[in-house]
Write the structure tokens for this entry.
Amino acid sequence: SSSRQALEQARVAVEELEDVKAVVKRLEEENSELRRQARHTEKEQRSLCSLAEGLQEERLLAEGQGLREQIQAQTAWMANLEVSGGTLATVGGAGGCV
């Protein structure tokens, strides 16, 4: 009877061990999948950062171009004022300001 009890306990222990092995295997697979997802997310994040830097650079270049155009327009306007200076100052009444 005690040997039968020992066998039963051994059988239960083996079943528990098999259950634990199955859980460990499932956790290893989940861990592997999570690592794969983390690598993928890291690549996406690097790609997004690179894209954001590129967009910021484009925006700065566009702003710079806009400022250059404004300066050129103001320079042309000033040159125009200098050329027709006296006339504009008297006709405009406020020194040619719009």
